Amino acid sequence: MNKLIRMSYNGHGSVREYILQGIDTSCKLKEMKVEIDNSFLSLYNNQKEKWTLDELISKCVQEESKIKK
């Protein structure tokens, strides 16, 4: 749980990899019967609209591509 709480994107690698790492960590916790509310995992709660994880990853990849250009 500490790994999940202390995760932060450090600018290395892609945002997509960072999001998937968080999902992987949360799946491992669920396997150990540690329930995690989706709102805890949310990177987008402060936005006006809610996105699925696929939509979030897609938006992050698009923004990352714009930044690299």
TrEMBL record:
It comes from the Eukaryota. This is Uncharacterized protein. It comes from Centaurea solstitialis.
